[in-house]
């Protein structure tokens, strides 16, 4: 039986160590055809996230993929302070070449609209690894184009557990809660992969070493990125791989447990900003609630070491 045709995707991202791992995984997998990478401010400022997107593509020899700069700030509030977790360059100080190709001239939402309108309806999926600013802006400015998206798979939110920037808030939704509210309530096909799942996909130093032994460039770079997580966390035995779970879900949805939940996003100004509430009056969203962590890590390793 012939292999299935690769799925056409756009990666919306704020690289970010775990974003970088997810991007390299997508580049390694024959299941995806990456049409472009749109960037957003989040983990660090927009100039750095855009540069990091180009640097990752330069490392992989994929300068054919355009990088498109997007939202430098949330839709309607000041942006968050950059996270120290990812280092000054946003990717843990890991060395990468400079971008070969400059960013596209159009802003991300306009580029997405043009691209989606040029493709068959439903043909393009968006993998969202950062704040949802660009996708919300697309929906606000050009809803007809946005409705041509096949599916959005987004890392974000927390449902049953404690958040990572507030009692019930996860960083990506907290960074631009108005954008999250637009996307969640839009009715666009959305799969949300929250902290409830991503915290159970954890990379150890031993995992990184196993990747390095394979001797493949993409696998070795992911090993470097995983190791960078431990530079300032010397007593931790493992680190969660949040954003790669988007690609892993797309590759093997059977390894995740989905629930249909009706969700509302908190857009207040308190520490509850970005919090998700399950509410019968909310918008129905598919939410990943469970995962086979070891099987997902094995899939990650096999994909990277086969490239």
Automatic annotation (TrEMBL):
Molecular function GO terms recorded: hydrolase activity
SUPFAM superfamilies documented for this protein: Nucleoside hydrolase
Domain Inosine/uridine-preferring nucleoside hydrolase, first and last residues per copy: 9-297
Domain of life of the organism encoding this protein: Bacteria
Listed Gene3D superfamilies: Ribonucleoside hydrolase-like
Annotated source species: Microvirga terrae
Classification via InterPro entries: Inosine/uridine_hydrolase_dom, IUNH, Ribo_hydro-like
Keywords tagged on the record: Glycosidase, Hydrolase
Coiled coil spans: none
Protein name per Swiss-Prot or TrEMBL: Nucleoside hydrolase
